[in-house]
Amino acid sequence: MHDIKDLGLAKEGLERIKWSEKNMPVLRMIRARFKDEKTLENIRIGACLHVTTETANLMRTLQAGGADVRLCASNPLSTQDDVAASLVKDFDIDVYSINGEDNKTYYAHIDSVLEFNPNITIDDGCDLVSTLHSKYPEKCKDVIGGGEETTTGVIRLHSMFKDGALKYPIIAVNDAKTKHFFDNRYGTGQSTVDGIIRATDILFAGSTVVVAGYGWCGRGFAMRAKGMGANVIITEVDHLKAIEAVLDGFRVMKMIDAAPLGDLFVTLTGDINVIDIPHIEKMKNGAIVCNSGHFDVEINLKEMNKFCENKKKVRKFVKEYEIFGKSIYILAEGRLINLAAANGHPPLVMDMSFANHALVIEYFVKKFKNGEKLPVNVSPVPEEIDNHIAKLKLESMNIEIDKLTEEQEKYLSSWTLGT
Ligand SMILES: NC(=O)c1ccc[n+]([C@@H]2O[C@H](COP(=O)([O-])OP(=O)(O)OC[C@H]3O[C@@H](n4cnc5c(N)ncnc54)[C@H](O)[C@@H]3O)[C@@H](O)[C@H]2O)c1
Questions:
Q1: How do 378-380 and 231-235 pair as beta strands?
Q2: Where are the extended beta strands (E) located within 204-303?
Q3: CA-proximal residue: ligand 1, atom 39 (nearest)
Q4: pLDDT tens digits, 127-161
Q5: Section 209-225 average pLDDT
Q6: How far is CA 311 from each of CA 16, 191, 308, 330, 333, rounded to the nearest angstrom?
């Protein structure tokens, strides 16, 4: 079963899935093992992820382990329709996602995944899990665990737990070191630049780029924008992150002060209305504004729609707002620019993020099959999984590192040895 754009796109999708696979060595190793061990047999996995080539390779890995998998999109604009087609046609995986779907269809697709009564959820932003808990609470009893892919989803899940609403154990895959150190920083850094360039053809060198948020994603993007010759300004609300940005060589100021200076504004905060009407009022004519945080709430488009005199699409992914006597350009309707206008993170990075999901699912299933009950909370990825993925990644790169000698291990764990 499926609801996708066009099965005829499968050939191109398959070629691109295979290309990604070449750059996902850790997931390949896990897939080979899963295929032999079949630990995931009789397990239904409901996934809500960006439907990209990398996600396709995660779905194939879970399927190789014996799981039954159903997939929908975690963002209405991020689906790669050719990948969805290939997953259905070539891999017999049920997919419900169409690039550009409206909000109603987006949630109907989430419903289709939940109708399948998953035993495991994989989410990116917590829309699947929150819909499951609010609309189908009775189905939670069949769920043994879930993994969450992104910072915003983890924040929402912690709130669910605090409110006493969470009904099954969640592992915060985002918080694994082998996830956010690399995916959020290098993945978002590169792909956000890619999305902006594909959408606009702007030259970064010499332009003033205002980056809201100096967390993992913000750092990654700021580093790449600086590397391309932009004058980067950081805005933050956290004192420590702000100092870090200053010592990394960036100008740091309030958004209201950065507003008149920027040629390009990029939000990567996970917060709401980070760019609001007072900022838009102060911006230069021709300023470009976009978001790479999870939800389309970082730019206050609702208010902009009220104030703007005219609005028109001037090229794919670029909308011109005539507002306060000038033109402001909004990219990809304020949705994740790296996934809307480009292909999201490179597979070499997603290799580690998705290896975490695969091994976390195996962990849940093994515990379940052994009759062990995990506490209902939001917990970190077990350290041994994180370290194992780092080890496999280095091995796949043919990089060897030193090992502590017995003497060094003893020294590092002792308090008696001083000068
Ligand atoms: N585009 C992608 O592919 C992608 C990838 C990973 C994560 N994300 C999303 O990006 C967002 C950021 O993720 P992260 O891992 O960098 O989180 P993070 O918590 O490491 O960083 C967020 C930063 O934003 C700052 N911030 C919050 N409100 C702010 C405001 N009003 N003004 C300025 N700064 C503010 C915080 O202090 C923090 O330093 C989340 O929504 C996450 O889900 C997107």
A1: unpaired
A2: 208-212, 231-235, 251-252, 264-267, 288-291
A3: 215
A4: 999 999 999 999 999 999 999 999 999 999 999 99
A5: 98
A6: 35, 27, 7, 10, 12
CB-defined site of ligand 1, < 6 Å: 150-152, 180, 184, 188, 212-218, 235-238, 241, 268-271, 274, 292-294, 336, 338-339, 344
Q: Which atom of ligand 1 is nearest to the CA of 292?
A: 1
Question: 224 and 156, same structural domain?
Answer: no
345-403, pLDDT tens digit by residue?
A: 999 999 999 999 999 999 999 999 999 999 999 999 999 999 999 999 999 999 999 99
> Position of tokens 């439907």?
51
Pair 211, 218: CB distance under 8 Å: yes
Tell me, yes or no, whether 269 and 128 share the same domain.
no
Residue 150 located in a structural domain: yes
Backbone angles phi, psi at 299, to 5 degrees: -110, 130
Tell me what pLDDT residue 238 has.
98
Is the Cα torsion angle 214, 219, 224, 229 positive or negative in sign?
positive
Q: What is the pLDDT of residue 417?
A: 83
Looking at the structure of the chain, the number of domains it has is 2
Q: Is there a contact between 217 and 185 (Cβ–Cβ < 8 Å)? A: yes
How confident is the model over 307-315, as a mean pLDDT? 97
Q: Which residue has the tokens 């398959």?
A: 14
Task: Clarify whether residues 103 and 210 are in a common domain.
Answer: no
Q: Give the pTM.
A: 0.94
Sheet strands side by side (includes 68-73) = 94-96, 68-73, 44-49, 120-123, 145-148, 170-172, 378-380
> Shortest CA distance to 204 belongs to which of 288, 278, 120?
288
Q: Which of 340, 361, 383 is the last residue of a domain?
A: 340
Are residues 154 and 104 both part of a single domain?
Answer: yes
Residues 320, 352 within the same domain: no
CA of 98 to the centre of ligand 1 (A): 26
Are both 192 and 301 inside the same structural domain?
yes
- How far is 162 from 215, CA to CA, in rounded Å? 24
267 with 291: CB under 8 angstroms?
yes
Domain shared by 355 and 215, yes or no: no
CA of 212 to the centre of ligand 1 (A): 8
